Amino acid sequence: MAKYTSLLSNLSSKDYQSDVDKASQDLAGSLKNLGSSSTNSTEAGKVSGIIGTLVDAIGKQVIEHKRVTKLRTAMDMAQEGITNLSNLIVESNKEIKDFVGLMQKSIIDHANASRPAYASVNRFYFDSNVAVILAEIADNRDVG
């Protein structure tokens, strides 16, 4: 799950836009240099800037569309596995909770079988120790 969420985070946050910015600036510069040899170099400079801006805007839209498509594809491919894992965790939690309940009953049964005599100091300490164990089990069951 950690690798999956890391992948989604990388796909959603990686900066591809700066590459498009640089490429469109390089294109505009190349077109401007190419236009400088024409008879109307001022107009060619303006046109190269417009073309560079268009390429930048379109490129960013294409990249964003691909990013969303890749995210959807990754999420769709992983969905069945995530569902299966979630079901396994739910089932495991139920089995663990049932096992803890069984262990709790076993602890009580064993404690009752070996409990010191009534009204003795040993019984007080024994009951206190068992109570601490049972309280810890109850606290952990409530968390899960």
Structure in words:
With 144 residues, this protein is mostly helical. It has a domain at 2-93. The longest helix has 73 residues, at 41-113. The two termini are 19 Å apart. The model has no long low-confidence stretch (mean pLDDT 80). The chain has helices spanning 2-13, 17-35, 41-113, 121-143.
Q: Helix count?
A: 4
Question: Ends: how far apart?
Answer: 19 Å
Rounded radius of gyration (Å): 34 Å
Strand residue percentage: under 5%
- Overall average residue pLDDT: 80
CA-based shape = rod-shaped
The residue ranges in which pLDDT falls below 50 over 5 or more consecutive positions are none
- The percent range for helix content is over 70%
Q: Order of helices and strands, N to C?
A: HHHH
Q: By helix and strand content, what is the structural category?
A: mainly alpha
Q: How many beta-strand segments?
A: 0
Query: Main beta sheet, described?
Result: none
Task: Produce the secondary structure layout.
Elements: H1 2-13, H2 17-35, H3 41-113, H4 121-143
Helix pairs in contact: 1-3, 2-3, 3-4
In short:
By secondary structure, the chain is mostly helical. The chain has helices at residues 2-13, 17-35, 41-113, 121-143.
